[in-house]
Structure formats: C-alpha cells, structure tokens
Amino acid sequence: MNFYLLVRKWYPDYRHAKLQKEKVFQQLFPDRSYDHQKLLNLMSAFTALLRQYLQVLQLEKEEHTQDQLLLRALAERPSAYPVFTKETANAHQTLEGLPYRNADFYYQKFQLNRLYFNHPETDQFNLSKVEYEEAMRQLDRSFMLDKLSFSCEVKAREKPLDEQYNIWLLPEIRAGIADYPVDNPMTGAYLAMLDLLESGNAAAYYQLKELFENNLSSFHRQQQQYLLQSLINYTIKQGNSGDGGFVFENLQLYQLGLRHALLLEHQRLNDMTYISIVNVALRAKEIAWCQKFIEDYAPYLPVHNRKDAKALATALWHYANRQPEMATKLLQEVSFLNIYYQIQARVLLIKIFVEAGLQGEDHTELILAQADAFERYLRRNDKVAKGQKEALLNFAFYIKKISKLRLEPTFPQLKAELRKEMEQRNALYNKAWLLHLLI
Fold first, then answer.
1. Which residue among 8, 103, 143, 230 is least crowded, i.e. fewest CB within 10 A of its CB?
2. At a CB cut-off of 8 Å and minimum separation 6, what does 87 contact?
3. Greatest distance between any 2 Cα atoms in the chain
4. Residue 282 is inside which H or E element, if any?
5. Tens digits of per-residue pLDDT, 304-362?
C-alpha cells in the first residue's frame, strides 16, 4: 500500500527524478540501506496485484462474460439446474435488450444455447429441430460478421503495402449472404467497405457514408470508430490526389467524430489526429473554426506532448492566417521532440521563406541552406517511412531547383517544362503548393 501511495503521487509523470529506485527505497525504508532485491520483490508483488485489479476492473465492464462464467459454474452443479435455466433465460433477455447486433452478440447467443443443450440435466430428445437450427444460424452470423470485419482489415493493407490476400470463403459469404441475412446494417457496411477498398470509387464511399450516418446508433463504439476511420482514410487519399471536394468531406467526418466523441479515448485525443484536423481545417479555409478547435481540444492532448502539439498547430494557423512572422517566431522558439512535428516545422519554415521571396525579399541563400539541411536530416533519419521520405526529399529537391532557376533570365520559358516534370512525380510532398509557385 505504501508503495502504491508513493507512486500514485507522481501520476502521470512516472519519469520523475523522485521515482528513481534508490530514492523510492529510501522513502519506503528510511532506516535501511538500499536493497535492490527487496525493491524488485516489492515491485513484482505490486505488479501481480495490479494485474489482478485490472482483470477485475475489466470483468466488471463485461457483463456478458460475467453471465457466461456464472452459467458455467452453475452447469458444473447439476443440483442447481433450475437456477441455471433461469439465469440462462435472463442472459438471453439481457442480450436481446442490446441496441446493436454484432458478431459478439450472435456468438454469445450461440454459446448460451450450446451450454443449455449440453447440460446433463437437459432432455435433448425434447429439444426441437428449430432450436438447433437457430443456434446454427447464430454461429453462422457470428462467423460471417467476424470474417467480413477482418477481411476489411486485411484488404486495407493490400495497396499501401503492395500485398495480395486470397481470403478463404469470402466469395462464398458474399454470394450466400442473402441466404443467411444478418438483420442489422453492419453487414451492408462491411460489404460496402470491401467494395470501397477494392474499387476505390466515390460511389462506394458515399454508400458507406450513408450507411454509417443513418445507422450510427446501431453500431457499437468500436464499430463506429472503425467505419469512421475508414471513411476518413479515403477522403485523405482523395484530397491528397487533388480532389478539393474531399477536403471538405474529410473535415466534416472529423467534425462528426468530435461531436460523438469517437476521436477521444479515455478523454484523450491523439496528438497526430489533432494536427491532422488542424491541417485539413486550414486547407478547407475554416480559419475561425480551426482556431477554436486548437484551444478547445488542447486540454485533451497527452501531457507529454501537449505543448509541442499546440505550438505546431498555432504556427500552422498563423501561417494560414497570413501572419508568417508570428508563425516563424513560434517555430523558432520551440524545440520539437516528435519527428513528425520536426518535419512539419521545417517544411513550414521553408514555405514561409519561399513566399517571402515572392514578395520581393531575397531569401535565396537561406532557402537553399534550409533545403540542404532538411535533406541531410531526412537521409540521416531511419524513422521516416520510405514512401514519405521519398516525397519529402523530392519536395526539398524542387525547392532548390525552383529557387536557383528563379535567378536565371530564362526562368519564364523554363516554367512550363518544370511544371510538367513535377506533375509526373507521384511521390512529391506539397505538390499543389509547389505547382502554384510556377503559375
């Protein structure tokens, strides 16, 4: 207990200097010299208790698991058969009261029926064919929904990772779904998602979006989050390919996720999601909404990177609001620890210097120095994904090329050729902005 009370004081900063092993031991045992093995034993015992506590907490959340455990315990006691049948009926009633029908729902129903069928006190000869057929349908429905769900996850890997999967029974499930209809919109949502992942066409996107919005309350939270993220991923891809309409679609989906708290986990907003929302809001020219979002959701960011995330978001907002001096000042005052933040900060500074040059200020040497430094940073950094690194290196390359060519008297004649060359580059970060420089 003393160990727990001591550690709890420093939540969530468990890297605090006062939590060094020697200092912790001294506070627990002020009259003894440091005993490393004793502290290890204490930590092991505490960890074991913590595991049990977390298991109990999780079990308290999972009422259906509690029901299953109770029924199994009763099933092992033949004299408790009347209580067993009553509790089985109660468990069925609880399941029927749920607002959604997912794979787990059908599997729980199947398990309850199977447990009842196989109880030694159940007269199996009095069980009807209808009861067994219904149990089989429940198992089929559970399998189909899980298979469709995981097929979507697997299919989502194919294009970005250049992988191909032959999914056993997926064609048969698609062909036979009408014979085993799952009476909830999740089946249609999974089928629409598979169509979207395989075809990538806008019609499949709008079909999935309509299913999602019209049946939001029919899906449990995990399904809501999964469907929303799939829609968001598609709009990001389309927006990045130059379809401006999907930038607004992307923002609307993020706003929907915020309204329904689908982007929050335990009252925490992922900092990468936070920055992504800022970027898409600024691309959609929602400057005022973005400013309010930055302030309202900063408190939901993880403590360890809240300051950096808000600083980067604010710098991006100043840049979009035509306040480059404010953005530059903020970027130069903060030492970003996150690699993603460092990349965004470097790109933003380069863009600010380039745009200042378009206004008549000669920043050519500074731009070239920044671009060279950015290239060295990228080549040294093995934590940047290969595809992203290629696009960023191409960005730095063309920044330097444009900056140098601007000094040439023939630049106006060279712009068309350079623009065509850049348009043919698939991996090019901020392509639209770079092309705009050549107008």
1. 8
2. 67, 70, 71, 74
3. 98
4. helix 271-283
5. 899 999 999 999 999 999 999 999 999 988 888 889 999 999 999 999 999 987 776 77
Backbone phi and psi for residue 269, each to the nearest 5 degrees, phi listed first:
-110, 125
Query: Is-contact 194 217, C-beta < 8 A?
Result: no
Alpha carbon 344 to chain centroid, angstroms: 20
pTM of the model: 0.78
Helix (H) or strand (E) holding 293: helix 287-297
Token pair 């698609």 is found at 174
Q: Of the candidates 56, 182, 169, which has an alpha carbon nearest to the alpha carbon of residue 109?
A: 182
Give the whole-angstrom CA distance, residue 435 versus residue 27: 63
Q: How far is CA 423 from CA 13, 350, 418, in A?
A: 48, 21, 9
CA distance 28 to 3: 7
Q: What confidence tens digit (pLDDT) does each residue in 217-261 have?
A: 888 898 899 999 999 999 998 887 777 889 999 999 999 999 999
Here the tokens at position 331 are 């970027």
